[in-house]
Amino acid sequence: MAGNTFGTLFKLTSFGESHGKGIGGIIEGVTPGLELDVDFIQNELNRRRPGQSKITTPRDEKDQVEFLSGVFDGKATGTPLAFIVWNKDQKSGDYDNLKEIYRPSHADYTYDVKYGIRDHRGGGRASARETIARVVAGAIAKLMLRQTGLDIKAFVSQVGEIGLSKEPDDLTMIEATPVRCPDPETAQKMIEYIDKIRQEKDSVGGVVSCVIKNVPIGLGDPVFDKLHAKLGQAMLSINAVKGFEYGMGFKASSMKGSQHNDEFFVKDGQIKAKTNRSGGIQGGISNGEDIYFNVAFKPVATILKEQRTVDKQGNETIMKARGRHDPCVVPRAVPIVEAMAAMVIADAWLLNKTYRNS
Amino acid sequence: MAGNTFGTLFKLTSFGESHGKGIGGIIEGVTPGLELDVDFIQNELNRRRPGQSKITTPRDEKDQVEFLSGVFDGKATGTPLAFIVWNKDQKSGDYDNLKEIYRPSHADYTYDVKYGIRDHRGGGRASARETIARVVAGAIAKLMLRQTGLDIKAFVSQVGEIGLSKEPDDLTMIEATPVRCPDPETAQKMIEYIDKIRQEKDSVGGVVSCVIKNVPIGLGDPVFDKLHAKLGQAMLSINAVKGFEYGMGFKASSMKGSQHNDEFFVKDGQIKAKTNRSGGIQGGISNGEDIYFNVAFKPVATILKEQRTVDKQGNETIMKARGRHDPCVVPRAVPIVEAMAAMVIADAWLLNKTYRNS
Amino acid sequence: MAGNTFGTLFKLTSFGESHGKGIGGIIEGVTPGLELDVDFIQNELNRRRPGQSKITTPRDEKDQVEFLSGVFDGKATGTPLAFIVWNKDQKSGDYDNLKEIYRPSHADYTYDVKYGIRDHRGGGRASARETIARVVAGAIAKLMLRQTGLDIKAFVSQVGEIGLSKEPDDLTMIEATPVRCPDPETAQKMIEYIDKIRQEKDSVGGVVSCVIKNVPIGLGDPVFDKLHAKLGQAMLSINAVKGFEYGMGFKASSMKGSQHNDEFFVKDGQIKAKTNRSGGIQGGISNGEDIYFNVAFKPVATILKEQRTVDKQGNETIMKARGRHDPCVVPRAVPIVEAMAAMVIADAWLLNKTYRNS
Amino acid sequence: MAGNTFGTLFKLTSFGESHGKGIGGIIEGVTPGLELDVDFIQNELNRRRPGQSKITTPRDEKDQVEFLSGVFDGKATGTPLAFIVWNKDQKSGDYDNLKEIYRPSHADYTYDVKYGIRDHRGGGRASARETIARVVAGAIAKLMLRQTGLDIKAFVSQVGEIGLSKEPDDLTMIEATPVRCPDPETAQKMIEYIDKIRQEKDSVGGVVSCVIKNVPIGLGDPVFDKLHAKLGQAMLSINAVKGFEYGMGFKASSMKGSQHNDEFFVKDGQIKAKTNRSGGIQGGISNGEDIYFNVAFKPVATILKEQRTVDKQGNETIMKARGRHDPCVVPRAVPIVEAMAAMVIADAWLLNKTYRNS
């Protein structure tokens, strides 16, 4: 299986299955001498963890990261930073009934056809538990980028049909509710809706939005590695993501050039854009304005309702998932979106250093 | 400048600027012995060419591809297939007034900050003329994939606020109108609208949709190189693209799992999905159903209206583009979207061969 | 730090330091369904291990490999195969006196200048213990290649000035002596010589030769990835290697074309070469004849004699290594050379599948 | 065919066959703003060109480089620098008799087995004419590295059995004779010997040595991308190369640690090594001392004598090459060795910038 590495200079190569020994990875490109703020890294993992509130699954996995290399006296040496989060509390038994069954809208069938073998326990490599490795690498990327002043904030802007009616005023409110929507009123509606969905034994999708402030000008590389193209790949590689748009996104397709263009002006001797419909990127390169984008998540495929499906032998059957499952994973996806964004930016930031003339 | 290569096994490395000697590239991974159907390749280029109709720019560039290597007796030898489309008919003079000016929502400013130097004539490397290289590589990819029976069809599904009201019935009608919308009635409305926009000296955005039929099962690689993630990067790397969604896309975010899941059944001994809301990909791997996706284009930034901007010296000024410019590039983007899709699929198809046990 | 990955399709990304938690890696490109013959893998590790005999260091590290992912029911699933060999028995204290000292002909100084920080315990990332990861990956590569009938055999052909006087007759005798020289008489001389060097508190270099039989025709890729160029990089990346030659090697430089060329003839309807001065590779591609090459190792830099050096503060000083050190690492390098060869071949073998027309 | 790209950040992707339209490539990673000293680049090509003197082939190919992109007003813009050297004066007819024949020790047979198709004219992609692309890219790399003061000098140290008896005193004498050996007396012997070989209708091998002075400390990346491992791959990828050694090379294998180690001392407050047996690299990273290495070339396979071989149909036959062929290519390999060294160093130099903390 190819495709386990993300990034060119700041690179994560990840490994692990949901019910194997653990999830981990190797991070390359870490700045030598970087202080490894372990509390910060662990906190990012905790944000991803299930069991944070009544609206997420009650599995209290207490994902603790163990670094295996690349650290000495609390600092990154620059050598590969390997890590693992050991799997605990997995109930493989919950999945015994799925051994022979292809769950609808899961990767069971495609893995079996492609590889001819599959660790069927809990999704195996296709499990969303794989995103643990992303969150660890993203936390390291955030630590590396601290010196630039860059700030990445993702939040839930939509759950089912409940969405924010306008840009949020106050991003400090994101973590104030378990649903991670910065508008308290909308957050409350979302929480109630998710609870209703849980009672229906169903699941629901949503949208995570992200704003990146204080971006250095000049990040990103035309032609194929435009900054937003790498952000797009990064987000679309997260489980359950079905769409990505930045700046005006799909709305731009119904606009006129005279409405969409961001005119320049001069402020305090600095060239600035009056508007930021472009979303902080021109020609694939950051222009110093805020980068913002939306990521669409489908409802998770695992629902506790009965569904019709087939087994490996090609017999039609009825299945019903067991175990503990989030009715809406979007709030837990917030730190994952941030992590992927941080990785993309850190990679572009390292690459950008190579253009310096001295 | 990094980022000029797309693909891992089927690879395009592109070069060229809009007003330099030409646009070209090197294609690697071509199947040795492949018949190079030059007419087909040239026809793909013609589809991209400006000056095809009154709704596109009247520059008749007659882009002719010249192969520089990798061909012998009309067949690809498998060695690097280098090619160039020589630039002709460029009127660099049209751009002299832009030498010192940063055009709004163009890459002028970000290139200058990032690289400290820029070929300002007509967009240089950031020009959409760069997509010529993609169309040539995409045509080769299509030739390679012919043996699989795979069929890629893109079309215009929206121009400004005019969109298809339902899935098109007949994809053979795509090329029937210059706007490349398969519904004749909608196409006519689009044409009239684009004409109006031209008279307003403005531009307008749109959406290109794409359907891929007869996809072999098993293409694509989890985790980071999911087939849709590579498609997303591919599409987002095209000039003016602001968004990508596949399957239900952003609509999936307001759906429930019980509405979105594709249940399996058995038909003629084959496992099939009853519905295809997933868009032909599960867990990043093609499942044999149709792949479909949408690509959102912003209105092109170059408009013939006056706009306020600044020059390199930081003085505010007024600019007005000269020359010939498409008010809506979306119809010409159709072959580009197809080309990028073909490249992604060909790459995944080659990689998939490495999993065979013998 | 870049450079921790070897291979394109069959890939090892390694991590670890000699006195950190362990040495490990992630292997990608493993054939799904491959039986993981754990005894075989462990045996390869045992061949590399110190403490195998009186001529190697008495550290009995009992390096046991633990697989962290990619295995299910004893088979590789094709997903990333992560592993670790936990460090035990390290006496970091042995290195306390080296904290401030740059050991002659070690990587201490260059790491400090390059990265500004270094795990000084026992060589850190620059330790030969890093080769553990290579041996594990090489063992997996050998398992994958079993179906081809390919056979890789490395042996010691020279220790100091004691060398084989002719091609060895019987490669089954390699493991018969701890020095891994297949000629018993020469082996005995080498053993005595190494013992003498140990008593002198010195070290000595040597040459490892390798023969690969039953190589499929067609492996390797011109231009830059010629099979022997990748073998060369692979071997030169092993600690203490100073030279690589294949076929006639440096001797070819004093030969005439009429002496060196391998004429073709036909045997049983098969095209064969009468001689094999080329070493089994033409134009960077294997031709089915035996591949053979030599790898030159310098004497290990760590000796128990006094040496003059400088410390980090730039003061001249006298140092003397402590602890247990091999006077000649060349016998232990034999499985490492085989492992790297297996990785190069497995990578080329996977890549070669992509050229198939169907 | 894979393997046409060399380098990670400073990258050459090459194309072309000996009797196709030309040889060229795309260079990425060029410093934006670099003055393109066209005379220097052309002069490097002239050094590689056949027909420079009576000891090389009389084909006067006048290889002129044409840049296709990436240049504006005489400066590199940093965008991909594409170039071509058009083929002229090829006499394909000289090769008609070889169409059905596998020349001994050529790549004819392996290409045919691997790819099933081959441009048989003059070696096609396997021709040494491919090295033109390397020389152009190497010239650009040298221009980029000028600011570092780095100096790369290769020379012929051996032709057949005639070699330098000691390190050359004066590297300015390299270009003084057509054989590019800096010792005039040895050079004269080599010239006479090559002339004799020509009369015998035979060919002869040789050794190119290279010294790199003023190398910045810190270039190169452990573990797999050690500076000497990349140099090794680079050199071994040149046509006809059979071996590579650096520092003491194969001689190191018969030395003791106490003889080989380079002790440190302090000079003018700088840490220096008393000796440089290591060849300027420790742990894969440059240490500021001179890098030196040797590259062994076999005699070219094409000789004007009769040889026995087989044809594609498997019939034994007698062949005799026609046309103009160098009896000894080693003098012309000098600029190619320098070019590859420059590319390796430039790549490591760019990568090294990413470790800076600011």
From TrEMBL, chains A, B, C, D:
Question: InterPro entries, per this entry?
Answer: Chorismate_synth, Chorismate_synth_AroC_sf, Chorismate_synthase_CS
According to its UniProt entry, one GO biological process term is: aromatic amino acid family biosynthetic process
What SUPFAM superfamilies does the database record attribute to this sequence? Chorismate synthase, AroC
Query: What reaction(s) does this enzyme catalyze?
Result: 5-O-(1-carboxyvinyl)-3-phosphoshikimate = chorismate + phosphate
Keyword vocabulary terms for this entry: Amino-acid biosynthesis, Aromatic amino acid biosynthesis, FAD, Flavoprotein, FMN, Lyase, NADP
> A GO CC term?
cytosol
* EC number, UniProt record: 4.2.3.5
4Fe-4S keyword on record: no
Q: Which pathway is this protein assigned to?
A: Metabolic intermediate biosynthesis; chorismate biosynthesis; chorismate from D-erythrose 4-phosphate and phosphoenolpyruvate: step 7/7
Q: Give the highest taxon in the source lineage.
A: Bacteria
Which amino acid positions bind NADP(+), per UniProt?
48, 54
Q: Which molecular function term from Gene Ontology is one that the record holds?
A: FMN binding
Q: How is the cofactor bound?
A: Reduced FMN (FMNH(2)).
Where is the chain membrane-spanning?
none
The cofactors it requires, by name, are:
FMNH2
Q: Name one Pfam family in it.
A: Chorismate_synt
> Which positions bind FMN?
125-127, 239-240, 283, 298-302, 324
| NCBIfam families, alphabetized | aroC, PRK05382.1
Q: How does it assemble?
A: Homotetramer.
Quote the function comment for this protein: This reaction introduces a second double bond into the aromatic ring system.
Q: Which family does it belong to?
A: Belongs to the chorismate synthase family.
Name the UniProt record assigns to this protein: Chorismate synthase
Organism per entry: Thermophagus xiamenensis
At the highest ranks, the source species' classification is:
Bacteria, Pseudomonadati, Bacteroidota, Bacteroidia, Marinilabiliales
The protein's gene is named aroC
